[in-house]
Amino acid sequence: MNRKAVIKKLRKEKLWDVVIIGGGSTGLGCAVDSASRGYKTLLLEQADFAKGTSSRSTKLVHGGVRYLQQGDISLVFEALHERGLMFKNAPHLVTNQSFIIPAYDFWGGPFYTVGLKVYDMMAGKLGLGPSKHLSLEETVEAIPTVEQEGLRGGVIYQDGQFDDARMAVSLAQTTVDYGGTVLNYCKVSALIKENELVSGVQAVDTETGEEFNIKSKTVINATGVFADEVIQMDEPGKQNMITPSQGIHLVLDKDFLPNKSAIMVPHTSDGRVMFAVPWHNHVVVGTTDTLIENHSLEPVALESEVDFVLETAGQYLTKQPTRIDVLSVFAGLRPLAKPEGEGKATKEISRGHKILISVSGLVTIIGGKWTTYRKMAEDTIDKAAMLGGFPERNCITTHLPVHGFRMDIDPHTDPLAVYGIHKEDIIALGEEDESLAGFLSEKLEIRKSQVAWAVRKEMARTLEDVLARRTRALFLDARESLRIAPETASIIAKELKYDNTWIENQIHLFKQVAKNYYFE
After folding, report:
1. Which domains does the chain have, with CATH numbers?
2. Which of 41, 106, 281, 493 is the most exposed place for a label (fewest CB within 10 A)?
3. How does pLDDT run across 417-433, given as a tens digit for each residue?
């Protein structure tokens, strides 16, 4: 992915088939689907790919045990099917994860054993393995740090785990593999209309200020929590369609959960599900469900949310985590489709997706979740193709390998697994160039060559792009990311031919972002 080449193409191209606004999971999924059908596709992202919600998930690829409990059977069926396809299409990014529900009463074990057998059956041929009841001894052996007072046993089941931001980058690369075009740091400022029908977008390159009038047969609004802002460009004054809900996660040292199994708590005091999941040699604990009035690209965890997660985690772990133990805290916003009835709590709103087509022809996709990104894209491009009068072509993403596809690599144990077929290329970079040899952070197992690769091949433009999303340093250990920030910025500057002033400015900006990821 070469940004200069993309800008040149933008200046020359007269008419696109599909312009997609938004570079998160939904927009990138739409771009892959559209490009792989042979439609002339352009995706524009105002910041970096997956800068918002799509890099801030619980890192799970799952059917949703909670949705089964709520009776949303169709969503569970769809999500379990899509979970299986993600495993098949991106084995370098998606991996199996065992989850244990600790049972502290007589009915808990049998109740969830039965429920999870239904979950297994619904997955069908794409299932990951059977769930089963665990004795007290088996539960403690699998999770030695689980609170044992009152523990009677547990239930183990299988779901999936992935690296969300790395999946987003791979989807951007897949789009390019199929002839599509993607561009970050290019903000759509207005819609272009002819005879009251949407016929393109006005956009500005936020790096240079260059403006573009981009003509397109169809325009797709896939901007997640920002969808209402694009809808307002089309229909000023229209009622909002999104109910944003904030979820936060705390990252702890692996000592809190030293074995491979994750913990799933099906009933917290606020009625949500709580997870404690091993991830990149750390533990991710969350989440919350807080109604948020205002949305931003950098949502901040509320004190009450942090207290809730720490307190709840402490109820199920032998050691009570405190703020001192938190290596990173991150918040994300769920772009929930506003329900028709009033008064629903956000945790009760369906994670299903909706596709809206305005009178002017703007296609908007809202709702959904990472696991169902592919199906959301298929449904959206089906509608866009009809609207644009494109040649009828079937979706091929059901069995489409994601860029980097590689089977003989384990995301659980190999920090370079997310690069798939490019793993050896990154190692070779460090061997060929002495300045890129060795580790930036041995603690986080991040190599200097990964920084150069991110700039050359993955359209990384800033220090934050590299430390938050191309690598996951900021999300894993905020203080460690600050420690390696100066050296990282120097490597980026060398690649992009920037001066010391740029380096100093980038370090300053990164410190401003990072301060919300750790406690003083």
Report:
1. 3-53+166-241+347-399 (3.50.50.60), 93-161+243-336 (3.30.9.10), 417-517 (1.10.8)
2. 106
3. 999 999 999 999 999 99
